[in-house]
Amino acid sequence: MLDRTGYPPGVPCWIDLVQPDHDATAAFYGGLFGWDFEVRTPEGAPFTYAYARIDGKTVAGVGTPPPGEESPAGWISYVGVESADRTAAVIEANGGRILSPPADIPGAGRVAVGADPDGAVFGVWQPAENRGAELVNAFGAWNFSGLHTATPDRAETFYGAVFGWVFNPFDMGDGQQTGIWRVLGYGDFLAARDPEIRERQAEDQAPDGFSDAVATMQVDEAGGARAGAHWDITFAVEDADAAVARAVELGATVVTPPFDTTYTRQAVVRDPQGAEIGLSQYRPPSAD
Question: Class for domain 12-127, per CATH?
Fold first, then answer.
């Protein structure tokens, strides 16, 4: 997998997790994915923020909340934008809310956290020195983010207005109403550095337009297992069953046991401090 040096506007580019016990966070994710950690906050700071790395390449951020603030509910996906301030205004103009207004993070970028009209939380990232995760779609790294919602039409209107996303439904083979969010032209951006990307996707029988995919959407029934609209995070693993077993050894609980789709074997676990993550083993039809 090629290293990433940047992302076009509208493409999710960063993820992070804030939990009360940083040592416990590092122990769990380091033990599960082999991450190393570089603390970025100055010594003596009242909170901690660290970059997680695999082989020296950034994959995520993890930290603790500033004094007096509660930890956000789980992992947050950040979408790259040209201007965090302008995007925050567009979010509010289209029925969303700003939970954390745009603010500069020295040595990183300008960020904000918002929620869509149904309450699903996400971030926006105006990059500076940190241009996004340097390693994705590798074992132990971020694979994709997915929106769960009971109101897909409203989601299409909102995310189309805010980020220019287009939704394409397709069949994952698991009985769920599912599809991909696309940023038109993103495949051309990827192919400029990876000319064989579309050929590989065709061999794996990927859905039409998959090279433009930036996220997924699953339509959940109202009042489902996790009530309310929300974004989730999935990490790539070599063996889903082994990854679940390792997560449980490290103190996680199983939310969804391993199951098969047309393209993956995947599961959901909850880490010791309550954040849920997906674990996905890529097994495309061509592998058969």
Answer: alpha beta
